[in-house]
Amino acid sequence: MSNSxxxxxxxxxxxxxxxxxxxxxxxxxxxxxxxxELLGAPAYAALARSETVPALRATRGDTPxxxxxxxxxxxxxxxxxxxxxxxxxxxxxxxxWLVSVxxxxxxATVDVRPYGGPxxxxxxxVSDLGCAVGGxxxxxxxxxxxxxxxxxxxxxxxxxxxxxxxxxxxxxxTGSGIQALxxxxxxxxxxxxxxNPRALHITALTLALSGAPAAxxxxxxxxxxxxxxxxxxxxxxxxxxxxxxxxxLTYRDGGMGGDDLCRSLVQEAGERLREGGFAQFLANWQHVxxxxxxxxxxxxxxxxxxxxxxQREVQDVTQYAELWLKDAGDHQGDTAAYEAxxxxxxxxxxxxxxxxxxxxxITLRRTDSDAPSITVEEWPxxxxxxxxxxxxxxxxxxxxxxxxxxxxxxxxxFKLADEVIQEQVGLPGAEDPEHxxxxxxxxxxxxxxxxxxxxxxxxxxDGTLSAGRILDAIAQLVGEDPVLLRxxxxxxxxxxxxxxxxxxxG
Length: 506
Description:
Blueprint: H1 15-27, H2 32-39, H3 41-48, H4 53-58, H5 64-73, E1 78-79, H6 80-84, H7 89-94, E2 98-101, E3 105-108, E4 111-116, E5 122-127, H8 152-160, E6 166-172, H9 178-183, E7 187-194, H10 197-209, E8 216-219, E9 232-237, H11 260-269, E10 273-288, H12 293-298, E11 305-316, H13 317-327, H14 335-351, E12 354-366, E13 374-378, H15 388-403, H16 406-411, E14 413-416, E15 420-425, E16 435-440, E17 447-450, H17 452-460, E18 462-466, H18 467-478, H19 482-488, H20 490-498, E19 502-505
Helix pairs in contact: 2-3, 13-14, 17-18, 18-19
């Protein structure tokens, strides 16, 4: 279907109406905190899953906040008289935010959802009606141009993005504008692109209603609207990464074969980055029979870029097909049609020898090093968001290790990172543990095995002694040749620094 079958959107060139609407929403405590207080935790969580019954039960009164919840979140017509004391109704109708229904009711034309910014900002995310929760949530919409709100993928990308101040940021495939909104906090200029003009319209509404500066909005696929001479210090994208047979849904299906869209996005980003700049994406990638998936991803990384790629999840092709067929609501229609679509997905995977699909994060950093660092790893375990600082410091450590050979490491001073604990695993009553594990309680929450020397070394590191002097003391304590210990330990030190267990001092 085309965008013409979707409801008309509010005017995006009426900032004064958006400003008055924002003031009214804030005045009624239509915020993330206000919703939680009104609805209670269970109903609030249900609303995030697109389940509305608990919220309907919690808004049977006539307070201004209950009125706004029913109007903008639950998409219920509300009596005109009841809304009149809460919103500037005439202006909202004229500006297209509300529409008259019957003789004496009004209804919202878009979903407006409170969203708490990282520093407590009261933001509002605009999306199409019934599509507030974005991505694999079973929204059941087959509308080609529908614009989704904030889902798990959106918040994941926002959480891992490096938030240092920049002069220019680029949001590719902006959708509802959530990434552009975050970028506006620390970027002097934000450019946002989308192949769907409706998404650009909604992004403008999201920014205006959130009180954020307007972005430079450009229609086109990915980098197409970007001029050859334009470069950025930050590029972010939650692209239409779903690997599907065809491109039915603009918000999720890339329209290229296999994982070519994600590969192209990564490969083209390098020349658009300024020195030291970051490009951060969510992506899917194929696990192809006879191919190492890590080598596949390494081949995507453009020249002149360091990369950190983390695979967070893997699904076999049947799980993957079912997930995205349910996302579009295909499982709720004709059984024969559903089975035909399912078969088409499996045919596509079989033709490409795809056995599974991975999902994860890709971060590039432009570097002038002659020896770029490419780290590809699998980490499906829980992490602590936001991870933007963790990502930035990862690349700081890459620079440090690249500049320090083994001799320099032994002369350096280190300290144990905060909230790292040691676990010893072994049989009860045994004199020595079978192995020792260092575990982080922050950031990536990594765990790594170390030998007794590595554990002892990490435990002593407080920044006062050089690594070499610490090893000499350990050698004397355990009766080992200090020269041999110095020879074999730098690799373990390098790993502990790389993974963030040890931090360089000075």
